[in-house]
Amino acid sequence: MESRIDRIKKQLHNANYKLTPQREATVRVLLEHEEAHLSAEDVYLLVKEKAPEIGLATVYRTLELLTELKVVDKINFGDGVSRFDLRQEGAAHFHHHLVCIECGAVDEIQEDLLGDVEQIVEDRWNFKIKDHRLTFHGICWRCSDEGQEEAERT
Question: Could you tell me what percent of the chain has a pLDDT over 90?
Fold first, then answer.
């Protein structure tokens, strides 16, 4: 974790920002809960445990700065809540998500599945793609398995 924090610190420094203690506490929470897709309020509550003096506005500003610097991505899964997801180091693109419409679980696909699609879009529409996001909505394996087990019992 420390090496990742050092790299984020360098990203901030290169953009003329400092890794203040409040920003570091926010980054640590994001790293500790990397798979969780936390909302700003979730991040705030977790940061507050580490740094009780931190305010909600500070967490919001930090998340916006980290988004601007592409350390995190702001995502919305259609529920009206912005969530924050650490960008994979060295990733050319944002990763994809599978959102279960039954239980709300969010799973990630790290593999970039849209290389060919990007090339077609760039060629046909003369559009230079900088990034993309893909979210699939459906029923996850957990709900599918539970549903099959329930059907077998009745």
Answer: 48
